[in-house]
Amino acid sequence: MTERLILLPGWGLDAAVLQPLAEALSGELQVELHELPALTSAAVDDWLAELDARLPQDCWLAGWSLGGMLATALAARHGARCRGLIGLASNACFVSRDAWPQAMPADTYATFYEGCAHNAGATLKRFAMLCAQGASDARGLARLLQSNLLASEPSLLAGLQVLAGLDNRAALAAFAGPQLHLLAEQDALVPASVCDELLALLPSGEVDVLEGCGHAFVLEQPQALAALLLDFIREAGDGES
User: How far is 158 from 113, CA to CA, in rounded Å?
Assistant: First the structure.
């Protein structure tokens, strides 16, 4: 049976940004790109309900950054109805808190949120540069990201609030299916140092740090990333037989 994989993008970006990865995976998987919710509500449950209503079940859920956090929360909700979970540059909590300090400092997040509220265009361009930081061609990658930004999307601020509100520690621990979480060594948004803390939450699964890349490794290295994901999904399937 050909496995079905749902891919969700990160905050502020359309799903087309993941097209190179989807194409690299499509030879062996049935891959579907889905947009994040276009909601002005900042309630996490509203975002999850919107995704739940339109995403298929009995498939793998994967996502980049915010997309990965939403996929994690959905996987925990679906339980055995989710074939497996893949998080790409995705943390249990995006913003640092007392019980989870390995995340973006709260004051950094607050400054970013205020910037987006007052000048979304400039903030999104800065965001693209932060995503590309650590890449071998950071400027070229930033330009590619900028072509996929949702500059006029009304859900940008709500999405940032969802990012801050999501706490997936219990979800990661609750999902018993196969899990793979990939972090980037030079990520400017999700610290790779959270690796051990993430791994400690999982009932089973893998957490790995990819060297020599940043937050946007999903665009920079689609072929190499696809090979890693396919290997993991194959191994998970072998374990079922």
Answer: 10
pLDDT tens digits, residue range 66-85? 999 999 999 999 999 999 99
Tokens of 30: 């049935």
Please count the structural domains in the chain.
1
Give the C-alpha separation, 184 to 25, whole Å.
20
pLDDT tens profile 125-171 = 999 999 999 998 999 999 999 999 987 677 899 999 999 999 999 99
**CATH for 65:** 3.40.50.1820
How far apart are alpha carbons 10 and 17 in whole angstroms?
A: 9
Whether 215 is catalytic: yes
Q: Are 96 and 102 in contact (CB under 8 A)?
A: yes
Q: Which of 152, 181, 187, 208 is catalytic?
A: 187
Please give the single-letter amino acid code of residue 216: A
Q: State what percent of residues in the chain have pLDDT above 70.
A: 98
Active site residue 152: no
Task: Supply the range of the domain harboring residue 43.
Answer: 4-240
Q: Give how far Cα 161 sits from Cα of 73, 117, 120, 166, 168, Å.
A: 16, 12, 15, 9, 15
